[in-house]
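Protocol step 4 of 6.
Sequence for Vacuolar protein sorting-associated protein 41 homolog (Oryzias sinensis) entered exactly as in the expression construct, tag removed. Do not edit the line below.
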Amino acid sequence: VFESEEDSEEEAKLKYERLSNGVTDILKNDAASCMTVHDKFLALGTHFGKVYLLDIQGNVTQKFVISSVKINQISLDESGDHVGICSEDGKVQVFGLYTREGFHENFDCPVKVVALHPQFSRSNYKQFVTGGNKLLLYERNWLNRWKTVVLHEGEGTITNIQWRANLIAWANNVGVKIYDISTKQRITNVLRDNVSLRPDMYPCSLCWKDNTTLIVGWGTSIKICAVKERNPTEMRDLPSRYVEIVSAFETEFFISGLAPLVDQLVVLFFVKENTEQMDDEVRARPRLDIIQPLPEGYEEISSDALTVRNFEDNECRDYRLAHAEGEPLFYIISPKDVVVAKERDQDDHIDWLLVKEKYEEALMAAEISFKNIKRHDVQKIGMAFLDHLLKNGEYEVAARKCQKVLGKNMELWENEVYRFKEIGQLKAISQYLPRGDLRLRPAIYEMILHEFLKTDYEGFATLIREWPGELYNNMAIVQAVNDHLKRDPSNSTLLTTLAELYTYDQRYDKALEIYLRLRHKDVYQLIHKHNLFSSIEDKIVLLMDFDKEKAVDMLLDNEDKISIDRVVEELADRPELLHVYLHKLFKRDHHKGQKYHERQIGLYAEYDRPNLLPFLRDSTHCPLEKALEICQERNFVEETVFLLSRMGNCRRALQMIMEELGDVDKAIEFAKEQDDGELWDDLISYSIDKPPFITGLLNNIGTHVDPILLINRIKEGMEIPNLRDSLVKILHDYNLQILLREGCKKILVADSLSLLQKMHRTQMRGVRVNGDKSFSVVVFHCRHMFHKECLPSQGTIPGLQFCNICSAKRRGPGSGILEMKK
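Step 5 output, structure tokens:
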């Protein structure tokens, strides 16, 4: 069992499984001591001196008996064709897996580590190193003999070697060194921090992240070292490369292994815990953490406790962490167990989401990665999501998700509808049922409509409006609605819905009858859409009562279908509605309803006096005597004045303005419109004994009648309000007239002079004549030219001659003195 120690809401980054099959059989009677990973196979060394080659499932493919004691290290080159093995009894073997030719040597002391050159398969890189008390480099020369070079000694047992490209890193009791094999220089010495820890019990862990980055873990300390090129100007006697520690930090537990994961680190920790009963520390389950290194610390990304077999008996040195280059696979090796850790894939992520009942996220993840998931099916996850929602009573959400989950699977849709029916939630799923290309059986839709009809008239009406009529049996639903109307005949919702059902069934007369009864706004749309004008000829009053404006507009727009005479006939008993209709007709066209203009006079007088005067002005078919009679009966002064003036009785009209209205301004305006001198005399005569009227005349008469005529008739001594101001205005208006006349005269004179000068310049301009010089040519001011012999005979005035062309056209400047005078 492998448990995440982080909060249960956080998903683990890695998943774990035991390496079984052949490994299980090996570890029953033996114990693992080391393992090396290649992308093609695994190499496992045991305490009893055997080396097994395994496939990635743990099945044994080859077995080598190397020694009778513990295998300390196995090394593979990059090709996986050669292997190096060292054991506790001093044996070192380097051979080809397919040739068995190579190096075999026995030393008199244990050899802890061996490392092949990464390119060992190539003939010019036949090199490997071993580590015991000394670091020895073996290199095969051209005579096929092995040459040995001591690279380092004197600092205790060498416990780890890692070879990457041209750099060899190794650890001894003092610290970590790096050797550059290309320059044959040792370039660094990284001292270990905690010297109190026994190096044999808490060995150093080394791994290369890339060709120039070494990660060192020792005790509870991690250091990330970057190998850099030294500036040539600073070399002197120094190595060409140097190491910079870019990050160093302490961890909580002891480090048993390291591996890179992109820019993060995978760290295997050996854990000791204090017990409550005893003060002694006990060995706890090892932990595999993913951490993000920082310059002076780290951030923990994930942490998992691993229940490996016999973890209570293991020490820090018993654990190893091996990883595959270029692939996120990590192997945790302990004496009795090998566990594989790998990054979680999308299937694992979906598993975790389902366990946490995050079904919607699981469904979304499956839809996004449907091509990559192997163990899961999008629709099954969706169905599990629906089950979860229904179980929790989230019926509305479940219904909404049906469209996404069920898709176009009709069988699933119908099953789900019946499931909603069983739990009494048909209403929830109703608005999400398919109604496009995919359609369920009509019985499904009818079942839902009947359910709504029992409990929710408004919801039933909404579905009828939204669902296409072909989804269900229309006649069956009409019958059901009629049955309900027998119990509640005045229910407007049911009546409206029934009208819609009739409309879909093309029984428009029944639908129209219901709409008119309900005064429903859709009645006009129904009439237009289905051309029901023949059905409304006897229902015009009903339509007008419902909405006069819409009804009149509709009737006027469709005169070809319902004649004006028919409408007037229907509205004869409702004069107020007839007036509305005829008024709008007159507004549209003054001549269409001309035979009803006489009738309209009374209608305007009765119902709409403000529009009577405009009607009288615009109508040319209105009988004036009839109109005058009606207006005089009702004492409509303004209308009477207009009719009198139109009939030619201007003096009587003016008298009414003065006597009935007493409005001098209106009287003056009337006189201006008529522009009749006798009318002005009558106005002056009527106003001469009324000072306020005289003031009004003085203020307005100046531009139409000589003010002297009025002033001479004013009685001496009569007190006239604002006389001085009125006289000043008369003088001002007169002065303004004089100025205007003078201005106009100046403009006329200037224009005349300008045109005369232009004509003079034009006539004085020379004219180019091309032709035979032996002929005499006569040129007129109009630019027409004639041979002298071709000129017509002279006119009646001696000495004057005219252009024959221009005389004929009777136009053109300068065509002759006589014509200019004309």
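Step 6, annotate. The chain has 29 helices and 33 strands.
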